[in-house]
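Lab notebook: predicted structure, single chain.

Context: the supervisor wants predicted structures on file for every construct in the current expression panel, including those that have not yet been purified. This is the next one on the list. No modifications to the sequence; it matches the entry in the shared construct table.
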Amino acid sequence: MVNRPLRLAVVGAGPVGLSLALQAARALPLAQISLFDTRAFDADVSGDPRTLAMSLGSVQLLQRLGAWRDEVAQPITEVHVSQQVPSLVGLVGGIVGAWLGRPFDEPQVRIRASDTGVAMLGAVLSYGSVTAALQQAWMQASDAEPHRLVSRFATPVRSLKALGSGGVEVDADIAEAFDLAVIAEGGVFAEQARKAITRDYGQVAWVGHVTLDGARAGVAYERFTRHGPAALLPLAPGRAALVWCVAGDDDPVAELNDAQRCSVLNTIFPAEAGRITDISSMKRFPLGLNAERSLTGDADGHIVRIGNAAQTLHPVAGQGLNLGLRDAFVLVRALSRSADVDQALRRLNRQRAPDRWATIAATDFLARSFTWQFPGAGTARGLGLAALQTVSPLKSALTRQMMYGQR
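Prediction complete. Output recorded below exactly as produced.
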């Protein structure tokens, strides 16, 4: 049993690390919390344009932490997932539909906030706006209790070492002992050391922003194509964030100019998404799965990994950050319910396993399905979408998982 205030080190001041530190500051009023990050305190993070798709549960968490800004968020009121059918199938389907007197429908699922009794399914924000709001809330808390809540910006952590006493030595500007260290900085797949479970999908994601003519406000589109998934996430009216996944070794996007990319994208997304008229400069990221078997390794003692430090996923389901925020929430709740750190960590692994593995398995299955070469793979995905749309319990389960994760 811990008979003194818990000493907690949080490594990484991104959204997951900051949310963990803030929640711990509130739920553990005696804990001494040190937040480490390599960036300087006065570095302006607000301009980071990377796009985040946040679930309703994540939105509610930010609201409780005082880090939610309505003016910088675009609510998602509808999610439209569909599969682009081969041109021949579309032609035959159109002929058959005309003969039957009804239009040919592509495989699709529509999830609307209004059908679930909520104002939004989630929201789209920039990484910079989320991080800046969380950092401001943390600094306000730290200013109020400077001896308990310590900011260690511009202080890279060189190493972590489990101590025989059950604590952790954090080697930063000086070596210090903590009861628990949480690694919340993960990075991207291409730059990570390989974890226990890893898979290179042989795919890359092109990300950027597009301008749309005739787009519906608040609708997120995900399109399954033979090359991989593509998504449009709503931003300001007439603007959307683009995630376009294709094969890495035979990249069909790399050699295209902006006009050609717009033309191709207009053949990929359904007409209701609007016509893409302009595209920003784009960045390219290799995609893969890189995950630990649990948030706490057997040999790590009181070292916990959460967010991308524990699991880096394919963006097909847009759940990476949401999963990390749920890791942080459950960890703080476990610590608040037990003064025994080992007991709290056992509870953390037990409670997080179903949600982690359901999300990891689902994204891994979808990502690998685009590499399958056997006939009928696309048809199987299409049948799955059709089943989700028509079988209410399946659709409801998907909606709950998308908004809150597995509870």
